[in-house]
Every structure is written in C-alpha cells, then in structure tokens.
Amino acid sequence: MITVAVQQAPFSVEDALAPLEALGGGAVASFVGLVRSDGGIEALTLEHYPGMTEVALRRLAEEAVARWSLIGATVIHRVGELRLGERIVLVATCAPHRRDALDACAYLIDRLKTDAPFWKRETRGGDGRWVEARASDDAAAARWSQPSPQS
Amino acid sequence: MPTILYFAWVRDMIGTAEESADPPADVTTVGALAAWLAGRSEGHRAALADLTRIRAAVDQQFADLDASIEGAREIAFFPPVTGG
Fold first, then answer.
1. Cα–Cα distance between A38 and A17 in angstroms, integer?
2. Is residue A146 part of a domain?
3. A44 and chain B: CB distance < 8 Å anywhere?
4. Left if phi > 0, otherwise alpha if psi is -120 to 50, otherwise beta: which for A36?
5. Which residue out of A4, A35, A48, A52 would a mutagenesis test of the B interface target, given it has the greatest number of B Cβ atoms within 10 Å?
6. Among residues A37, A41, A120, B34, which one has the fewest Cβ atoms lying within 10 Å of its Cβ?
7. What CDD domains does the record point to (chain A) (predicted)?
8. Which domains does chain B have, with CATH numbers?
C-alpha cells in the first residue's frame, strides 16, 4: 500500500500512521521533518512542481517497497508557507520486521531530498532567500546506490 | 511547440513561471535550449548564465543538459532541489 500526498494543510502523525499499523506488519518506522529554528528563521515557504512531484514521490516509494519488501509506505509533504516548528514532511514504512522498516524509512527521506522537485525559501528578519542545496544531502542519497556496509 | 516552466529563483530572475518556445531546428538538447532561451531577455541571461547551477526536467522527468528535447511537450528549468 503506497500513499503519497502533497498538500498545504497540516497533517496528524497519528492519522498518517494508523493505516500502516493496520496492515498486519510487525514494524512501522517514521520520520518527521520540521521547520528548524536555526539562524533566526521565521518562516519557510515550500514550492514544488505540480504533477512531477507526486510522480517522483510515488516512484521513490515504489523503489523502497520493492527493495525492502515493504507492506506499505506513506509520504506526505507540505507546500506553501510554514511557521517555525511546523511539520514539513512525513515518511513512514511498514514491514514485517524493524530493520527493513527503519532502513527503508531512511532511504525514503534521503532520496526525497535530492529526487523530488521541491524548493525552500526561508524568511529571516522579513527578508526572503532561496535555500541552497547541500552537498551532504547528495552524499546521503548516494550512499543508497552503493553496496550497504555490513555492521 | 513546448511549454517552458521555471521554478524558484530561476522564475524570480526570469520574471515568468511559464512561456512557450519555438526553438530553431538545431536546438536539440536541454543545454542548447537553455543557451537559446538565455538570449530572450536580461533576466533569462542572468538566470541561465551558469548552467552548473541549473537542473532540468523534460516532460516531468529529471534530465541532464545533454538530454534530447525532441518531441518534448514540457521542459522545466530550476535550481537544485531542496525539499524534505
């Protein structure tokens, strides 16, 4: 079961996880990204590419489901103006066991950051500025292309 | 004739989110299209001057600068993505 949503409205984590918890797996993992307070940010405005975004998110979810044999995956990403501390994104996965759910959850948020057409504009002191992409995000996404290190 | 879309600061600098384009026949790739569009206005030139800062999509799929635009209906130019 794959659920993808791009929306302005806030979302409830409990409501987002409930359908995954009902799938009969033993593990649901989730990640929630929030508007961070660093550097005096007052607000964040999220823009996206309507049409392409939904397809890109669904493709990432399908890849995660196939790679970790997930029972379900959910991606919710907000757009528009968000205030400090508000939820931006939720990714959640359901699998029979925790390792697959946790790894797939990390994969989804790492890949979402480099493979889905969203752009952040931050407001500080009344001035807006487009956020620059970070090389560390590229590195985080790229590590999923390599053979996973065994611990 | 493909529709050209711009997002984020690329749109801000160019001053429009969407326009149509009828490039000459020798403009066959994403990079060549960007270079051709750069001649449209001062804003286009400024936004598309450094293509290492630009990403693109052809018919809503991420595409490299050397990707073909043949038969494309929608081509988008935008900065590296920053979601999540």
1. 28
2. no
3. no
4. beta
5. A52
6. A37
7. MoaE
8. 3-78 (3.10.20.30)
